[in-house]
Structures are given as structure tokens and as C-alpha cells.
Amino acid sequence: MSTDAATVPDRLRHAGLRATRPRVTVLSWLDGHGGHHPADRVVEHTELSRATVYHVLGQLSAAGLVLTAEPTAGPVLYETAADPHHHFVCRSCGRIIDVACLTDETPCLHAEVAGAVIEQADVTLRGLCTDCR
What we know:
4 helices; 3-stranded mixed beta sheet; Dna Ligase, domain 1; Arc Repressor Mutant, subunit A; 2 domains
């Protein structure tokens, strides 16, 4: 869940987005449910169409208000988080554990790509969680 004290509409406006009903609905739902959720779960629990939810999630992700995790060949998962982080995925049970970045900046990995500006780095660690070991 987001630990940001600002309201959802304020967070949207601060990110350069208008606080439309679909954006407020999706971001509020993610804030209220914590964890990692596929888009279809958001569709099931809101009165928004599938196309609208996918469109809004793309906008929120591009604006840095939601983070994505791609644990397996399954659907992309979405979450709100106060700090950038990476993910550990258990290859046995599928559990997803947030892993803190080593720095407090984005991207929290440093790499050189000639002529490019790196804006984001996503790392997924895979292995066995303590319960599955």
C-alpha cells in the first residue's frame, strides 16, 4: 500500500495526470488492497471495463504511480508502493516478496547504455522461498 499522505487526486495531479474517475478508482483500489494484483482482479472489483482498467494501469505505470511485477509467464501484476523495489519470486509456490533497492533513487541499478537515458530498472530474483526450501 502507498504510504504517501497525499490524497489520490493530489497524487495524480502531482504526477501530471488529471484526477478522472477511472484513475481515482483504480489507484484507490490498489492502495486499499496492497500486494500484487493482475489487471483482471481490478476489473472484477470495480465497475470499470477491462479496456479502461488496462488503459489506466498503463497511464499510472508510466507516471510512476504503480509498479509492475512479471513473476512468470502469467499476467503482469500491479501494485502501489512508496519506494521503488524489486521482486523475488518463489519458483515452487509463486510467492512474491518485495526486495528493497540498494539505493534510494530510480533506477536503483546503474548501467551504461551508449547514448541512452535509463529511467527504470526491473529486477526479478527467482529461487525458493524459506517455506519451500
